[in-house]
Amino acid sequence: MAKVLIPAALRQYAGGQREIEVSGATVGEILTALTGEHGELRKHLYNDEGKLRNFVNVYLNDDDVRYLDREKTAASAGDTLSIVPSIAGGRA
Predict the structure, then answer these.
(1) Phi/psi of residue 56, each to 5°?
(2) CATH topology for 2-85?
């Protein structure tokens, strides 16, 4: 099983959990399993076309999956998947 780290901004959609263990052979399978268990997360991670939202960054261990094989990136038991939403704002 892989460990998925849930950011504070999304924990309310994951039963308040900080981390969740799910099975999957790829990043996509892990995210599918995660959103299968916590359906409210899906709309915050994916757009209407079923693609990861532009502001959602996903890291497998310390590697940004955008520079690997995206959702097809292979994962192993014991890996850590971090979901990191981009945050915009500040002074105008």
Answers:
(1) -100, 115
(2) Ubiquitin-like (UB roll) (3.10.20)
